[in-house]
# Entry
Amino acid sequence: MSTDLVQLDRADKLFHTRHFFSVDPKTGKRHFYQKRPIHAVREMEFGVRAGEIFGLLGPNGAGKTTTVKMICGLVRPSGGHVYVDGLHVEKKRLQVLRRVGVVLEGTRTCIWPLTPRENLAYFGNLKDVRGKVLRQRTDYLLDFIGLSEKRDVQVRQLSQGQKQKLAICIALIADPPVIVLDEPTTGLDVQSSRAIKDKVVEMTREQGKCAVVTTHDMNVAQELCDRIGIVKDGELITCEPTEKLLDIFSEQVYELRLDRHPDTRLLEAVPGVVSTELEDADDGPTCLVKLDPDPELRSQAIYGTVQTLQQQQLLLRSIQQRQQNLESVFLQLTNGHSRPGATE
Ligand SMILES: Nc1ncnc2c1ncn2[C@@H]1O[C@H](COP(=O)(O)OP(=O)(O)O)[C@@H](O)[C@H]1O
Ligand SMILES: [Mg+2]
# Structure
């Protein structure tokens, strides 16, 4: 058996949707119209270890929420299996529920007329957390997430970010080893979003929990996740450590900040230099030099470039490799992966 806390084994989900179609103008009859099935998740396979933050990244409708709902037992897979802590989600439902804390997007997890403390008492009791343990954990969680000051304020008076923080505390009240966060920072301001990301990292690292996070935001995925699975039309099109994902697609572009324009024809004549481009700024131009991916040729090209610039007696202010971001990686990966009519 694997040691993954969460494991999906070719989990599949087919939704059958039925719609009232239209009223027939001649007969006045309503047609109950069976729509074609929607394949929301296709043979999804991945595992998440303790202490790891796994991100599911994809556009709206890609199947992220459906996938995480299968992990918490809220959606029954139409094929394949899902395991939490080695337990089959469908067969050991109750045991699985005790091991997973979940915050779903856009659902009202907390009870608004109650205070954060009362909310945690209520949900704690539902999950068999009572007495001293409940009080201690409530204090700890509210303090951990930064809500101590608001502990006795009605939830309706809290900001959206504070409500989201409380929802995370509720998910953590029974101290589950797995936490599932569906779009945890959507709709939050920069500070709340930052605080939540920091807390998720702290919690996974320090307490050895495993976190599954869904997001459509590349920055969230890039900043937060150790490993990223990119989902499109229900399919996991790639699943790699974040660094590796960025590396694979990192173009070898170097930024050279100079005091004036170089002769780019001379630079392009250097072996290993693929192309050059100039960007102007107030303090002088930046020359973008794209190099050959081959390590040896690239090394030659860097030496050659610097030499050429020196020969032109240019002042070289700085040299750095341009960082690739996830957005460009994502676009490169999802282009050509479309499956028309797969989702609505
Ligand atoms: N309960 C449902 N019944 C029918 N179709 C659904 C249901 N839930 C989701 N879908 C469909 O499954 C697809 C994936 O949805 P979802 O998992 O919510 O995507 P995401 O969270 O990535 O935005 C969408 O096409 C959506 O319309
Ligand atoms: Mg969703």
